[in-house]
Amino acid sequence: MKLLLSAYACEPSKGSEPGVGWNWAQALLRRGHDVHVITRSNNRADIESVGKEPNLCFHYHDLPEWARFWKYWPGGIYLYYLLWQVGAYQIAKKLHAKEKFECVQHITFVSFRQPSFMGGLGIPFIFGPVGGGETMPTQFRRNIPFLGRLVEAGRDVGSSLVQFDPLMRLTFSSAHKIACATEETLVRIPSRFRDKCVVQRAIGINESEVEVEVPREVEIRPQFLYVGRLLYWKGLHLVFRALAKVRQSIPNVRLKVIGEGADRGWLEKVARDANVAELIEWTAAKPRNEIWQEYRKSWAFVFPSLHDSGGMVVLEALAAGLPVVSLDLGGPGSIVNSSCGVVVEAREGTEDEVIKKVAESMIDLASDASLRARMSAGAVTRARQTTWSAAVDSLYSSIVNAEKR
């Protein structure tokens, strides 16, 4: 098939949104499709640094330089992104007149609140995978920073208003298929459009990154690992409080935290208040190849995010053979299962009850070598089931089959 992708964020060797745009394009290419991608001019240098590939063509677009300052205003990125989408659609129309695409897909941003106009091309239009419909359970909001509580309330309002947004109605109505990264996002789609919806995670792992053999533990002392941004909604503060309970059973336990973010000061205070500051090693963000070594050295990975559509680091940890402790919320809750980690039920019960369950899961993993070995093998198996290629095959199967008929 000849495909057109709209990928505002698209860069090689990056995680998060840029990694989603890049890896979907690469996976479609590996599946034998002829792929064209519309992305930002700002991504051009990184994309061209990896060289050109046959049947993969990038088209670059950005707003005039005088308009780019909008991105730095509070909320200005959303106006900038909307206008970028308008321009990207104009480019898409010209390209389609020449290339005669068979399908167009909106890849990034991965948000069900932001529109795409690619449905106007008059060919099958896939919107997504998109996420953002996840919400933080109310029992976890009492102990986060005040600004965080305001942000969560605003986020909930924004999700509720999607059904009244005329641009989103246009996007949903013109879509042939709406791919939702999580079940939580699917239920946010207006009911009249849900017959078009499928649940398909936006993220994946490259087959080459999955361990051929499960690595042996390197650290003698029990070390848990967290990799990610230091933000209140990532749930790291829950791990700190759980760590206070874990040390009662395992005094030499350690937690390594790799990442940076605006809430580090608040998290450090939580660690001091929980009397676990000396058990935590803080490390700045590292390149992916160095983080991969940390996966191999650690005993288990903790990622109790309170609303995350994806969780790329969870897939990376699994691919390295590292068992994962997560909550049953958002993307991580759908990736991890009992074969490769522990999924703590967090939708019901109090915050203290969830923290207790997280602590018990950490104690079990640190105390039982056979459990770790079994889940380590299961992690590799699970990673092989969640590749980028598997995501592409799942989402495109119905369209490809229709083309063959």
Structure description:
With about 400 residues, this protein is an alpha/beta fold. It has 2 domains: about 1-205 and about 385-405, Glycogen Phosphorylase B (Rossmann fold); about 205-385, Glycogen Phosphorylase B (Rossmann fold, 3-Layer(aba) Sandwich), CATH 3.40.50.2000. About 40% of the residues lie in helices and about 15% in strands. The strands form 2 sheets. The chain has a 7-stranded parallel sheet with strand order 3-2-1-4-5-6-7, sandwiched between helices. A 6-stranded parallel sheet has the order 10-9-8-11-12-13, sandwiched between helices. Strand 11, helix 10 (about 310-320) and strand 12 form a beta-alpha-beta unit. Helix 7 packs across helix 12 and helix 10 (about 310-320) crosses helix 13. The longest helix is centred in the first third of the chain and has 24 residues, at about 75-100. It is globular, with a radius of gyration of 22 Å. It starts with a strand and ends with a helix. The mean pLDDT is about 90.
Shape: globular
CA-atom Rg in angstroms: 22 Å
Q: What is the number of helical segments per DSSP (H or I, 4+ residues)?
A: 14
Outline the biggest β-sheet: 7 strands, parallel
Q: What's the N-to-C terminus distance?
A: 14 Å
**Low-pLDDT runs:** none
Instruction: Quickly count the domains.
Output: 2
Q: What's the helix and strand layout?
A:
Layout: E1 2-7, H1 16-30, E2 34-40, H2 44-48, E3 56-61, H3 76-99, E4 103-108, E5 125-130, H4 146-161, H5 166-174, E6 177-180, H6 183-186, E7 197-199, E8 223-227, H7 236-249, E9 254-258, H8 264-273, E10 280-283, H9 288-297, E11 300-303, H10 312-319, E12 324-327, H11 330-335, E13 341-344, H12 351-367, H13 369-384, H14 388-404
Parallel strand pairs: 1-2, 1-4, 2-3, 4-5, 5-6, 6-7, 8-9, 8-11, 9-10, 11-12, 12-13
Helix pairs in contact: 7-12, 10-13
